[in-house]
Amino acid sequence: MLPQSYELPAAIALVVGGTVACFAGYRLFRIVLAIDGFIAGAWLASSTMGSGNTAGMLMAAIVGGVIGAVVLFFAYFVGIALAGAGLGAFIAHLAWNRALTTDPPVLIVVLFAAMGTVVALMLQRYVIIVTTAFSGAWTVIVGALALADRGSTRVAPASEVWILYPFAASTEAPWVPIAWIVLGLIGTVVQLGVTGRKR
To answer: Distance between the two ends of the chain, CA-based, in angstroms?
Structure first.
C-alpha cells in the first residue's frame, strides 16, 4: 500500500524489475532476489500502516523493502527454496482459482509449495530460470496494468492509496494468463539460450 502519488514510480519499478528477472534472472539471480525481497518487504510492511499515514507508509515500505532485499540477497539457497515454494503456491492458486473460482485450501497450497521447494533444490539452474522468467513476466504485467490503469482513470486525490495485489492482476481479463504464459516462455527461452547459459 502506497500513497496514490507514488503509483507511477512504483509501477515503473515493477516493470523494470520484472523485465530484468524475466530475461536475465539466472545470470543476475542475487540481484533478482534482492529486487523481489524489496518488493515483498515493502508491500508487507507498508500494509501494516493506516491509509491516512503517508509518512508511515513510506517509511515502512523503505525499511521493509531494505530488510527483505538484504535477507533474500544473502540467503541464496533459502531464496532458491522460496522461489520454488512461491512458484508452487502460485500455480496452485492460479489453477484452483481458474477451475473453481475460489481460493485453494491451505493444505493444497502448502503441498504445492513443498513440492516446488523439493524440485527447486534438485534442479536449481532450470528452476531458477523458469521461476525468474515467469515471476518476472507476472511482475511486468502487474506493473504495466497499473500504468495503463493510471493513464486511463481520473487523477486520484492525494489522500487515496494504491494497493498492490500481486496475485490478482486483472483476473477478469482473459488475455492476462495468456500474456503471462507467452512472456514467461519467451523469458525462459532467452535465458536458456543467451543470458542463462553456463560459462
So the answer is: 41
Count, in order, helices (H) and strands (E) of the chain. 7, 2
Averaged pLDDT in 10-residue chunks for the chain of 199 residues: 65 88 89 83 77 74 86 77 84 80 84 89 86 90 81 48 55 78 94 76
pTM: 0.67
Q: What does the alpha-carbon distance between residue 102 and residue 93 come to, in Å, rounded to a whole number?
A: 9
Cβ neighbors of 80 (< 8 A, separation 6 or more) are 120, 121, 124, 127, 128
Extract the C-alpha cell encoding 198.
553456463
User: Residue 194: in which H helix or E strand, if any?
Assistant: none
Q: What phi and psi, each to the nearest 5 degrees, are found at residue 162?
A: -105, 125
Instruction: Give the Cα separation of 21 and 31 in Å (integer).
Output: 9
Q: Looking up cell 493510471, which residue turns up? A: 150
Break the chain into its structural domains and give their ranges. 2-195
Per-residue burial over 62-88, b = 16 or more CB atoms within 10 Å of its CB, e = otherwise: eebbbbbbebbbeeeeebbbbbbbbbb
